[in-house]
Structure formats: C-alpha cells, structure tokens
User: What shape does this take?
Amino acid sequence: MKGGCIAAVLVLAFAASSGQARAEEATAVRAAPSSAECAQAYEHAQEQRKSGQLMSARDTLWLCARDECPDFIHTDCLAWHAEVQAELPTLVFRATSEGRDLTEVTVAASGRVLATRLEGQIIELDPGEYDLSFSASGTEPKTVPFVVARGERNRLLRVELTPLRTASPAPISPVAPRFERSLAAPAIFTGLALAGVGGFVALGAWGRSSESQLEQTCSPQCGSDRVADVRAKYVLADVSLGVGVASLALAAYSFFRQAPPASSGARGLGMQAGVSNVGLTYGGRF
Assistant: This one.
C-alpha cells in the first residue's frame, strides 16, 4: 500500500512538469516573430537609425536579430545591433552646490525624466540637441542647453546649482517718536492773560471815568485823596495789563518748550515783567 502511494506521487509530479514544459514551448512559439514581422523590423530599424533614433532602432534590431528570422535578416540585424549599441551616446550627470555633490537631483529632457538620483549611473540618449533641466530641493532649477553627439561614451556633464535665495528683510525705517503737547499749562496762562487784559480795559475805563468827573467837578483844586484814587485805578490797570501780557508769554513758553529739541542748536525763551512793562526774549544758536 505504501509503495503504491509513492508511485502515484511520482506520476503526478511527472505530469505536472511535462505540462509546464509544453506551456512554455507554446508560449515561445506564439512569441516567435513571423517572416513578415522580421522583414518589417529589418526595414524599420534602418530608417530609425538614419533619423538618429538609435534607442528605438536598437530595440527593433533586437526583434529581427532573433534566430526565428530568415538567416540574412538575422545576420544583418545582429551586426547592426552591435553597431547601433556602439553609436548610442551615453552620459554621466553630476550636480554640485557650493562645493558638495548632490544626489537627490531630478534630470529631465523634453518632458521625459532621465534620472531622479545621481549616483554615477550611465544615461543613454539619442544624439541631438537637448535642454536638460536639473532640479533639487533647496536649489534653484537650472536648464542647460546640450548637444549630444553620436558615438560619445560616458561623457561627464557637470552642473552647479545655486542655493535658493532667502528674501532679506526690508530695512525698517526709523520712526520718529510721536510728540504730544500738554495743553493744561498753556490753557491756564491763556486764561490769566485774558483776565489781565480784561482787567486792564475795565480798570482803565474806570480810572478814565473818575478822572473825567474830577475835571468836571473840582479841577484844578481837587483833593489829594481823590486824585490818588484815580491814580491807583490807573496803576491797577497797568498791573493788570502786565499780568495779562506776562500770562500770555508764559502760555506761549509752556506750549513751545514742549517741542523736541531742534538739531540746529539750543533755543531759550526768557521773560521779564514789571508793574508797567513786560519784556520777552528768545535766543538760540543757528
């Protein structure tokens, strides 16, 4: 019973291997090119080679160089395949930035990505003119016009990528400090100035009225006390005027002294007031 089981297993394994071999043979037969396909590849590869499409010509020649193709086609395509492979240009890209090599670099040509990393690998290109674009993180993209000649092998193309420029902060213009004037003191002195001028007008009018009465009643033999009373009114009027002018000067001084110091020189305001006169001085360096 045990020997029968072993025999059955061997039979099944042989059947499976035979079936797999037949399947692979059938696939190879279906994949083999026909004579028409070989002839078409034979003609098309020559056209591609003449137009400079060497990479496409190489793939086409590999099709007609198969053993299933007629002998002369197979022989020619096999020889041409080696020639095209030798004519196909190859490049090696290298990118640097500030003296250091970059590896994470994307290289593209005519919208086709040729490499996403640069590790010294060989890149195949058809001969012709290209605008090769290089881009890497932290650097400005760069496009390099480049002519690839037929038969160039392992030509080194090195590019220097510029680091991204960081925007420098705009210079801050110095802002002049705001200056606010206090109007409390000027307002007080202005009020006193108005009161002084008003007192001068009122006392002066009162003194003039009293003087007119003396002229009409007793002049020139008026009593000294009555004359002194008129004089006192005039003196008070002069004092009131002095206070008014002095207060006005103080109002102006308290207002203008709050201004920031001018660069042209120091300035000063002075005042002198008396019973019947007021003096105001202003000085500075210019």
About this structure: The longest strand covers residues 128-136. Residues 184-284 form one domain. The helical segments are 2-31, 35-50, 54-64, 71-87, 184-217, 224-256. The CA atoms of residues 1 and 7 lie 10 Å apart.
